[in-house]
Specification:
two-stranded antiparallel ribbon; 6 helices; two-stranded antiparallel sheet; 158 residues; alpha+beta
């Protein structure tokens, strides 16, 4: 990606489709796996790299893109006797991706299950009750998948 083009703000030549615009940031496998690690509390480069086994240059590129896109922010830290380093933390936009990762996990558990069962469970912190990802209407009622349409917004010219 050219350094002349910012990925975080509106650009005239960006696609009208919000799914396509989102995939420009999140559509690469390592981006979602990096986010999974950060949601799991691994914020330092070495922790993420060790957990994923990803090449350092690839991890650097993914982290840079996620920071530029406003999904992550950096903080400086320093271990005694070492140089300053960066840790990576979710922004509010990054926090909203929890539901995206949960939806991918739910789909994988349902359609690509492991014989040993899921690697993680989705639960309400306060009660331990199982939760699932789905559509809800403005009053908080669940809406069946079959009853949801994706329609062009006439106001957007689409």
């Amino acid at each position: 990606m050219s350094s002349a083009k910012k990925v975080s703000g509106p650009v005239d030549d960006e696609p009208a489709c919000s799914i396509e615009r989102s995939l420009r940031i999140l559509g690469e496998r390592w981006s979602l796996l990096v986010l999974r690690e950060i949601f799991a509390g691994r914020n330092r480069f070495a922790e993420i790299q060790s957990s994923l086994g990803v090449a350092p240059n690839l991890l650097s590129a993914r982290l840079k893109l996620l920071v530029e896109a406003g999904v992550l922010r950096t903080r400086t830290y320093q271990e005694p006797g070492s140089r300053h380093r960066l840790s990576y933390h979710l922004t509010p936009a990054g926090e909203e991706l929890r539901i995206v990762l949960a939806a991918l996990q739910q789909w994988g558990d349902r359609h690509r299950p492991r014989p040993s069962g899921p690697s993680a469970l989705r639960r309400v912190r306060s009660t331990g009750e199982a939760v699932s990802v789905g559509f809800v209407d403005e009053e908080g009622r669940e809406v069946p998948y079959a009853d949801v349409d994706f329609m062009a917004d006439p106001a957007s010219g689409g």
